[in-house]
Specification:
The protein is built from five helices and five strands. By secondary structure, the chain is α+β, with helices and mostly antiparallel strands. Helix 2 crosses helix 5. The termini are far apart. Bound molecules: FE2/S2 (inorganic) cluster (FES) (2 copies).
Length: about 160
């Protein structure tokens, strides 16, 4: 099958690319764009969440999205989360409380947390654990992540 033309917003920039339709969004980001924050920890089976990106405001597993499906849409990866070099409050809070150990799950968990806070500005523990339920972390036990999301929520709500 021939390549297809795909246009979408990637980290706030409009891009237009010719790509193989069999490529997943995860493969595209890593191999064509050099954006390696999204990772594959389960063989692209949709089970680990390490490949999480935000697609039109929702956290999705980019290994399960074909590149053609993002045509006309908006994708944010961990590389696009900081603004003018300043980390997003969720990133800062993850660092502050030590919610990062090996770091393999961190980009996905941060993006899932950000998507949650965009929809639910003041989540409770259950909301946070539910939002992170697709992001497998072998290291932290999630408690620190939950704490970090509460801190980020306070920070974001104070700024309003
Ligand atoms: Fe594991 Fe996508 S690589 S869910
Ligand atoms: Fe190691 Fe989450 S910090 S898998």
């Amino acid at each position: 099958m021939g390549n297809i033309q795909v246009q979408f917003i990637l980290n706030n920039e409009k891009i237009s690319v010719k790509v193989s339709p069999g490529l997943t969004l995860l493969e595209f980001l890593r191999t064509e764009m050099g954006l390696t924050g999204a990772k594959d920890s389960c063989g692209g089976e949709g089970e680990c969440g390490a490949c999480t990106v935000i697609l039109n405001g929702e956290a999705v597993n980019s290994c399960l999205v074909l590149i053609g499906q993002v045509d006309g849409h908006s994708v944010t990866t961990i590389e696009g989360l900081s603004v003018r070099g300043e980390l997003h409050p969720v990133q800062k809070a993850f660092i502050e409380v030590g919610a990062i150990q090996c770091g393999f799950c961190t980009p996905g968990a941060v993006l899932a947390s950000k998507a949650l806070l965009d929809h639910v500005p003041d989540p409770d523990d259950d909301d946070i654990r539910e939002a992170l339920s697709g992001n497998m972390c072998r290291c932290t036990g999630y408690t620190k992540m939950v704490e970090a999301v509460h801190i980020a929520a306070r920070e974001l709500n104070n700024g309003k």
